[in-house]
Input
Amino acid sequence: MAWFRRGKDAPAPTAEQESAETDGATGPAQKRGWLTRLRDGLGRSSSRLAEGISGLVGGGRRRLDDDTLEELEDILITADLGPSTAARLVAELGKRRFDQELSEAEIRTEFAGDIGAILEPVARPLAVDPANRPHVVLVVGVNGSGKTTTIGKLARNQRDAGLTVTMAAGDTFRAAAIDQLRIWAERTDSAIVARDPGADAAGLAFDALKQAQEGGCDLLLIDTAGRLQNKKELMDELAKIVRVLRKIDERAPHDVLLVLDATVGQNAHSQVEAFRDMADVTGLIVTKLDGTARGGVVVSLAEKFGLPVHAVGVGESAEDMRPFAAQDYARSLMGLAPGTDENRDGAA
Ligand SMILES: Nc1nc2c(ncn2[C@@H]2O[C@H](COP(=O)(O)OP(=O)(O)OP(=O)(O)O)[C@@H](O)[C@H]2O)c(=O)[nH]1
Ligand SMILES: [Mg+2]
Output
């Protein structure tokens, strides 16, 4: 089942469709529902927060005075929620519950509610519109952030939804990068457009769009080389890729996805700034949340930039990425069982 919406007005999946997804899976790993994956993936972040809060409150209750609020603010910062988001969360908690005696679980529930509210406006599944034929997605980010793997995951989901996918091996710097994409193309039964290492990336993107158009392909996913945001030449190359695509279709790329590695924590902010200026980033995908206690970074990104967060990655396999759902994320981050989340897509 698709977790990418096929169009902005596509209906949410039914409960039957959702359970069919897990029922159809084979290995034990696939059978674990998405919510379990998300909760497990955010385990490091949620234990850091839970341990911090329980260390402060103990097994009983604690009065919410200024000192307690200050300590809670520090705990939120340790999970990379960032100073401004942490201050906002604590101020809101103080407004509602100042001087009351709260248990550890109540504090986590209060924070989860406010975090969910911050995330709600940015939790938007990517809307692939097959009417664009192809819908063009340019994938950008620094070295090793998870771009190529993300393309594989997106392709898997779209193929499962019955869309045809072409991948463009726009990381022309390394032969290994082209091979890595080729493997994902084979695994997902996608077409691939590649050239020899050293070829011009913009020229390749141009050819790939032409081919995808001629072949009537639904979705074109363009991989790019990882680049440090301060290397002007490489950043200029991204702008060139966009210019060249627009010669064929002035609305392309329909999406520019910035892939961020959550393990870098607050450094993700400077990456957003640099890539947004250079390539008109339209949305974010945050990966490697399973390898870090910095899961709060998604909340601080949401608060600061307001860019759509389309999906999060909690592992290396094709099943480890789903659309971003605000309440699920907020509750998992706070180590709570899932509540209801209207934006959930493909939850098990
Ligand atoms: N644990 C975990 N690993 C991930 C995730 N996403 C990607 N990876 C791993 O991170 C490493 C880098 O991923 P790539 O997809 O190659 O990253 P990239 O951005 O394409 O890298 P460059 O092309 O070198 O810039 C690989 O070993 C992936 O398997 C994730 O969500 N969780
Ligand atoms: Mg890559």
Notes: Strands lie at 61-63, 101-103, 135-140, 165-170, 191-193, 219-224, 255-261, 283-287, 309-313, 321-323.
